[in-house]
Amino acid sequence: xxxxxxxIGAGPAGLAAALAAxxxxxxxxxxxxxxxxxxxxxxxxxxxFGVIRYEEKLTGPEYAFRDIEAIRAxxxxxxxxxxxxxxxxxxxGFSLLLQNPINGAFRVDTKALVAAxxxxxxTSRQVFIHGDRxxxxxxxxxxxxxxxxxxxxxxxRVAILGSGDxxxxxxxxxxxxxxxVVGVYEIKSEPSGLxxxxxxxxxxxxxxxxxxxxxxxxxxxxxxxxxxxxxxGADLKALHDSEKFVPCDTxxxxxxxxxxxxxxxxxxxxxxxxxxGPLVDQRMLTSVPGLFSCGNATHVNDMVDYVSESGFIxxxxxxxxxxxxxxxxxxxxxxxxxxxYIVPQRxxxxxxxxxxxxxxxxxxxxxxxxxxxGKELFRKKYLRIRPPEMQKIVLQALPPETxxxxxxxxxxx
Amino acid sequence: xxxxxxxxxxxLAAASLAEVEVMERQGAVILEGRVKNWQQYLEAGYAAxxxxxxxxxxxxxxxxxxxxxxxxxxxxxxxxxxxxxxxVVIIGGGVIGCAIARELTRYNISxxxxxxxxxxxxxxxxxxxxxxxxxMAVKYGTKKHYYNLHGxxxxxxxxxxxxxxxxxxxxxxxxxxxxxLLLTPLIKSNADKKEVRGVRVLNRRQVKDYEQNVGDGQRxxxxxxxxxxVSPYQVTVCYAENAIQNGASVYVNTRVxxxxxxxxxxxxxxxxxxxxxxxxVINAAGVWADRIAEMxxxxxxxxxxRKGVIAILDKKTGASQRMVLGRAPLSSKALTKGGGLxxxxxxxxxxxxxxxxxxxxxxxxxxxxxxxxxxxxxxxLNKTLDSDNIIxxxxxxxxxxxxxxxxxxxxxxxxNLVHVAGIQSxxxxxxxxxxxxxxxxxxxxxxxxxxxxxNPDYNxxxxxxxxxxxxxxxERNRLIANNPAYGKIVCRCELVSEGEIVDTINAPLPAKTVxxxxxxxxxxxxxxxxxxxxxxxLNILARETGRKVTEVCKHEPxxxxxxxxxxxxxxxxxxx
Lengths: 413, 576
Known about the structure:
heterodimer; A: 413 residues; alpha/beta; 7-stranded mixed beta sheet; 29 strands; B: 576 residues; 9-stranded mixed beta sheet; 8-stranded mixed beta sheet; 15 helices
């Protein structure tokens, strides 16, 4: 089997990439490991999706449905229940070993590859929760899956560690399902999710948010019987004098997402330690010729609209790559003062670039400045900027002699 | 007071434990009274060792500690096993009990194995580093050495017969001081005496050649090629499955609560599921073996648990190391603080275990301090590792006696009881050899009470379900064409198909819990730790076992994962 562009993952990024690649004349194959396309959107039955792209508040399944319909209308092939068993570079692209229940294991060759593999959740062990291993410890996304896709209630009295968006959304969801959320515990001094979720999911439901507090231990051997919580000092270490026992039958974790790129290991692309995703240019091309990355596999986005946007860029670029075969841009974009990360991390000259970034901390009245060789390229003022809220700017095409671009965030002067 | 007791008294006094009372019963020394803390309890036990007694029974009470009860009250109380009769009843479904069960099916006798938990290998047998040790770290002349040496040599054959995975990566015991190289002749003669083959001492540069990522600070190494790695859980289950295929009965959720005795014989084994008649009783009860021995009427040893915490690292790390890495126990305290880095069968590296004396026999809680010890002591042995690689961690306990040797013998006071106790490290390596010895010992007892013959249908080869991951593409595709469930991947991280999960739920020894499925198939063992596959595994378990999803447990009864359907409580409220 052979194709021009193979897209791995039929979540919002992959759906957009497949559509864009087809629109730009490529033969496309979209493979997904689940039985239905849509990715994690399938279990996100709350609203708020599409406010930028459609200027509407859709639910996750509604948002996904629009892209899935477009895929059907375009007559694109989607292989569900399909797993990538092996992936390697070939003479003119990539060779994949795929497997599904209908076709068994089979090889596909492709000229360009788009990795839209999303992310996974950080586990209780990765944040070093101690105690025994009773039932009742779930990541927020697993709980969301159980409740929204299966109608199962994973707990009745729930403590939540971490104030990521999924955690706060699940706090509301569990309350609506008759469970009691005893508290959301956040080790940092401010919530790590969007402000709108803090207001709509916690405050509106009288769910207490405990900042500068963490869970130090899980109690119980069969089922969770409670957790120990403690205030933390400036070094984020628990102050054991403040430790107290909170009875509950469930601990939910919303402690961060990790871009899932393990599948790419055999190709060995360059990675950005800050984002956990491959280093890309504004066409979403990685250091491996023909390998594109998009969506939450590149970096964890705050809004699905941006995930789709990067998918469209990756898909269009992949189709163009099949025809032209260009290489990744090498103009380095470095995050300067007060920036946590920037995507893309590389640029190619002569082409406009959509740039996403996050700040290191919450800041008021700041200015973003992009410079190349001491010359200012872009400037924008922000009244308030918070790390959970990703920002986007558009940078004009750079002249070919540009070596590097520095972007930084400073107080208004 | 006899002379032996006086020497015990003297040793106790030397340890400032003069108030401990000593007496003798059935050839064992009994310690009674009250001490202030667990440390004193241990000191008293060790002080009584080697004073001419059969063993140490430490019945000291410890201030502030209640006597440990067995974990969990069974919810399976019934009389379903009442009046069942077996030629042999084995107590304990760890690797030792299961290996013995399989060996005993070579006789034409009825064999039952009783396990108090919901699955086999719930305790020590699944909470260790899976290492088949070379017989180097054990004292020459001990039972430990004998069984370790012979068990190690049996593993290739047993793996072949039972169809479990086994690798022989070899081991480097790193030397911390340059002068340790001067011990080379001693190390070699020690290896010769213990009959361990291929042992060599490597200098610092040679170590680098063998293992390029070895941490700094090593000054050479003892190289031991006869070091193997297995999945201890898989070994246990394979032994049990082969035993079942050869006619043995395995009963889980079956807890021994006492014995019926007539004269010097045990006649009945009392359990939460009724009283079983038994021709011979084999005590392979792990950390509870002394309690079983006491109930059976011949206790001469004490089990005191030694806890070990283990961390598992992401599969990505596997390529960075070939061999088991540890520190040579030359200058450190030999009893404790072993452990190191073990390359596991599926690409993960295991770090640990720690070794700490604890009070709780089934206390598997971990603490930040224990994990910190692993991070500081074990991870640096391979300089490419750091704590971000850790995907999970857990604890186990070792069933140690004060004598620190294995007990594998027929009881001197009960005619039809066999002790297989104190099986701590290297118990896994020793299991095949221990099982063969217990087969002999049991045969001797049985032949006095029945006409003992070989089982004509005994087949040492375990029949097993297909493993798609090990098949060629063509074979795999034929399997999937026959049953598409083998083509549907449920566990993303470990590539486990629905077909394999269904097979394990319907196996001779059915996996009925999420943990049982996980430990048999690896579904949920990967880097996402079940985040993605748990809902699917729950549904498959409910479907295949005909239970409601709210009845599916993680492990023991009481560990249900789902507490209800959505809105059930919400509906109640709105109805009010």
